[in-house]
Specification:
Blueprint: E1 16-17, H1 38-46, E2 50-56, E3 67-77, E4 80-84, H2 90-97, E5 100-104, E6 110-120, H3 124-138, E7 149-161, E8 170-173
Antiparallel strand pairs: 1-8, 2-3, 2-5, 3-4, 4-7, 5-6, 6-7, 7-8
Length: 174
């Protein structure tokens, strides 16, 4: 089954602007010079093997839950990030309590940071397309593990290229 391209039609691409980062020299929000194209996100995410997933531990005592970061394998498909984790793993338990999460690629020189909410995927057609992309990339079937598959639809995405920072610093709001 073919995997649909991660590229959006030009008319529905998210609007790029500058991230708010006082003190880092990020300017030029109005003219938009140097902003990264949305297709850059798909290229970077598709080219990455191991990602970092940050979740939030449930509150055990007074105060905020603590962050939890772990490496995961996943695929970028239809402008969203898909991955699997054990339901009883710390990541799985954290997501059950609070679906807010952040995913990053493993390249600090050309970083992609995806903020969003994880939702368990149930639809057979989407699961099949995810499995086909995952098998192609990792040579293993994630559906055979019997654990949940999650999709993170981004609410915000950040792109940073070290060599051209801060001129290329880009934020997309979806």
């Amino acid at each position: 089954m073919p995997v649909r391209s991660a590229k959006r039609p030009a008319k529905s691409q998210p609007k790029a602007d500058r991230p708010f980062a006082p003190g880092y020299g990020i300017v030029g929000a109005k003219e938009g010079k140097g902003l990264l194209p949305w297709a850059w996100v798909a290229r970077k995410m598709n080219g990455c093997r191991t990602f970092w997933l940050a979740t939030i531990r449930p509150r055990l005592h007074a105060g905020q839950g603590r962050p939890h970061v772990m490496p995961v394998w996943g695929v970028w498909l239809d402008d969203a990030f898909f991955f699997s984790t054990g339901r009883k793993s710390r990541k799985g338990q954290n997501l059950a309590a609070n679906p807010a999460c952040t995913i990053t690629n493993d390249d600090g020189e050309e970083a992609v940071i995806v903020e969003g909410s994880a939702e368990e995927v149930k639809g057979a057609a989407v699961l099949e397309r995810f499995a086909a992309a995952y098998i192609k990339k990792y040579k293993m079937d994630p559906l055979g593990m019997g654990e949940p598959i999650f999709r993170v639809r981004p609410s915000r995405v950040f792109g940073f290229v070290e060599k051209t920072f801060p001129q290329s610093a880009t934020r997309w709001k979806l």
